[in-house]
Every structure is written in structure tokens, then in C-alpha cells.
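Posting here for the record, re: flavin mononucleotide.
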Amino acid sequence: MELMEIIKKRRSIRRYSDRQISRRDMEKIIEAGAAAPNAGGGQRSILVGVHNSRLTTQIGLMNMKKFDRSKLAGSYVSREQPSVIDDPSIRNGFYGAPSVVIIFGQKNFMFRTADAFCCAENMVLQAAELDIASCIISRGEETFSDEEGEKLLREWDIPENYSAVCFVILGYTDDKQPSSKPIRQGRIKIIE
Ligand SMILES: Cc1cc2nc3c(=O)[nH]c(=O)nc-3n(C[C@H](O)[C@H](O)[C@H](O)COP(=O)(O)O)c2cc1C
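Prediction output follows.
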């Protein structure tokens, strides 16, 4: 598939079946993330793959517990596959995906967020090429900001000067692939 085809095919998926992705595919997706452009060439982001559906769900519930809906009143994201913003009955911020990659950034590094989302974008594109469903999820720092979260970070040996920035959830859906979104008019200019 051509790169532009993959870019346009990729959509955020928010309903997952129980089917797990292979470990080999997860490794390839993480490799794509680790190869992303990064500020100063420092390769500071740390990528942790959780290839375990029970643990992924636990973290998805923690992610949703920290969600402050009041900040987004009136927003609407998707009619095809409602997001946590659209549907207050959604309790798992990872929508039942069986795997997740957590992207950690070095605290106090000014480009930690930019670096993390470059990794995330590479990963969702690699997932699309493998026909794996994905979605970028935010609220990384908040997700691990209590005793339950801190315990996991200790278990995984995450350095003290790192905290989570965002997530890429991974899996398969039984739903129809959402159609490509048209690009909103007026966003592109080329100056000769
Ligand atoms: C910085 C960023 C944060 C996002 N956070 C979330 C999130 O927490 N939950 C979610 O369901 N989708 C999240 N998304 C996915 C966007 O909602 C999605 O990309 C957007 O609606 C466009 O739809 P598409 O990805 O299907 O083209 C995030 C995307 C980005 C780039």
C-alpha cells in the first residue's frame, strides 16, 4: 500500500473485539514508534507495550477515572464510533482494546509532548498498514497519578524522572472500517 493510502485509511477506532494482536506485530509497531523524529535526536521517549488484555483494561479504567468531562461540555467527536466525550456511559478510556503502548517522556524536557505524539503517529500508521485498529489516547500523566498507578510504574522500572504522556491502543474491530474523513476547506496554503 502506498503511504498516502495508509494515511487516509487510518481512523481512530473506539470499539474493539477480544481478538489480541500478535506479539510480533506489537514489536513492529513499537519499532516504528521508536524510529520517529525526536527533538535534538535525543531519543528520550520510552515506549512500554502492554500485551495483556486484563492489564490493558485496568489501565483503561484508570485513564477514564481521571477524565474531567466538564472541560469538554458541548464537544462531539464521532457519530460512527462514539468517544468518551460523546458517551458518558463509557467507563474504559481504552474502549476494550486488548493491547496498549504507553509513551513516557522525560519530566521537565520541553519537547516531551511533541516527541511522544511523533512516536504515537508513527505507531498508528504502522498499525494501519498491518490492518490493526488503533487510537491515540491522552491523559497519560493523570492516569498514573495515584497509588495504583505509581505501583505499576515501580513494577515496570520506569525511571523517577519520567512520566506517561499518551497511549496508542491496539486491537481489532468487528465494525465496518470508518470512511476517510474529508479535509476541512481552507487549511492548506502553498506560497510560491
Ligand atoms: C493529541 C491527541 C489526543 C487524543 N486523545 C484522544 C482520547 O483521549 N480519546 C479518544 O477517543 N481519541 C483521542 N484522540 C483521537 C482523536 O479524537 C481523533 O484523531 C480525531 O477525532 C480525528 O479522527 P480520526 O483519527 O479517526 O481521523 C486524540 C488524538 C490526538 C492527536
